[in-house]
Amino acid sequence: MATEYGHDYGQAYGPEPGRPAAGTGFRLPAALRAPFEARALRELGYVLLSLPVAVLLFTWTVTMVSMGAGLLVTFLGVPVLAAALAGCRGFGALERARARALLRLDVAEPEPLRMPRPGALSWMGAVLKSGASWRALLYAMVQFPWAVFSFSAAVTFWPLGWGLLTYPLWFWVFPTYGGQGGLQLYGDEHHSVYLDNPFEITATALAGLLITLATPWLVRALTTVDGLLVRSLLGPSLLSARVVELESDRGVVVDTAAADLRRIERDLHDGAQARLVGLAMDLGLAKEKLREDPQAAARMVEEAHGEVKTALQELRDLARGIHPAVLTDRGLDAALSSVASRCTVPVRVEVDLPARPAPAIEGIAYFTVSELLQNVSKHSGARSASVDVWRAEDRLMLQVVDDGVGGADASRGSGLAGLAGRLDAVDGVLLVDSPAGGPTRVIAELPWRG
């Protein structure tokens, strides 16, 4: 792997949690600055826009679906229903764009229509059979009542909070122009209560302050529900997302296999094959000199014998890189111990498995630890390392720890990133914890699949 521990590690870490970044001054707590933040205004704008959009979407859906259902006795009902669903998909694109702009919620587009052939009939069939179309229809029916509720809550609490908070500035309107002491809190035929003395005015302002501070969080909770609706009903389905993920993983597996084949071909061509070609030429020359100069021929045969040994060792190393025999015969414990013995630093190996996992998972675990120990040897500057392997429920857990300089980062397109992609192809996970100065801890999770 190409990851170099300790280089540019400062770029991967920000300021410590709870400590302001360099050059920044004192900031108000989040609860106090929330009403003035751009995020709160964007979320309020989202809620206010939701009602007119919901009215249009609900009206379109109810009108077109009712018309299409009524016309199903004729052929006209099918295109009307298809148009209704297509309109819902169009509104869905609008809602995803609105959520992206105001809520900073990036929702991927749903799966596209699958038309076996071009044409209007094929398009109508694809729209009617698409799960994304019907989820958009469901969104139109569910989002309308929720938008009414959210809009009502927002337009009630935002003006109420600011109105009460600024009450000391405008309560004079009542005695001057209204003929009463202040804002009426209660009134019946016998008596009335007005907020007109300094204590009541101050208490009203404090109540307004509390409502003003709480309203952005209320609106945020409302938009969280909106985000869930957009993500679950207007985004790709779990099944289609899983298909895309599997297709991507299949591409990673194919690329990895192709890279391994190229590496094996290169090693054979530049190593054992070149030695065997040279060996054949040396033996040919020795054969020609056998009668003329037996001693020289004997020396050439002796040199060829040494080349045979070297070629055999290279072939053994190559075979071990493809799949070591010790792994097949004796399992991870013995195979990882063999890898650890070749590391340039002392490595403690602890394998605690109740049984052997599937051969494919076992091989991936072996090569994962091998590459991590190569990192330790080449880049970590460590004095010691450890390898722990255990099973946690249906997961095979691997942990490699070293006391080197740290700074490893899988997000910079390094060998760790490639290793993470290989693990992801089999539903595995790679976690890297490598602060500056060490220690470095890499944890890999693989499915057990015993």
Please tell me about this protein's structure.
By secondary structure, the chain is of the alpha+beta class. It folds into three domains: 38-234, no CATH class; 239-322, Single alpha-helices involved in coiled-coils or other helix-helix interfaces; 330-447, Heat Shock Protein 90, CATH 3.30.565. Helix content is 64%, strand content 10%. It has 14 helices and seven strands. It has helices spanning 30-33, 38-70, 77-102, 120-129, 131-165, 167-170, 173-178, 198-234, 238-292, 294-322, 325-330, 332-341, 359-380, 415-424, and strands spanning 183-187, 192-195, 347-352, 385-392, 395-402, 429-433, 440-447. The strands form two sheets. The protein has a five-stranded mixed β-sheet. It has a two-stranded antiparallel ribbon with strand order 1-2. Helix 13 (359-380) links the parallel strand 3 and strand 4 (385-392). Helix 2 packs antiparallel against helix 3 (77-102) and helix 3 (77-102) packs across helix 8 (198-234). The chain is elongated. 26% of the residues are buried.
**What profile does the largest beta sheet have?**
5 strands, mixed
Number of discrete domains: 3
Shape: elongated
Gap between N and C termini: 28 Å
Our estimate of the beta-strand percent is 5-15%
In DSSP terms, counting alpha (H) and pi (I) runs of 4 or more, how many helices? 14
pLDDT averaged residue by residue? 80
Low-confidence stretches: 1-24
Q: SSE order in H/E notation?
A: HHHHHHHEEHHHHHEHEEHEE
Rg from alpha-carbon coordinates: 35 Å
Question: What order do the strands of the largest sheet run in, or round the barrel if closed?
Answer: 3-4-5-7-6
SS-based structural class?
A: alpha+beta
Proportion in helices: 55-70%
Secondary structure tally: strands? 7
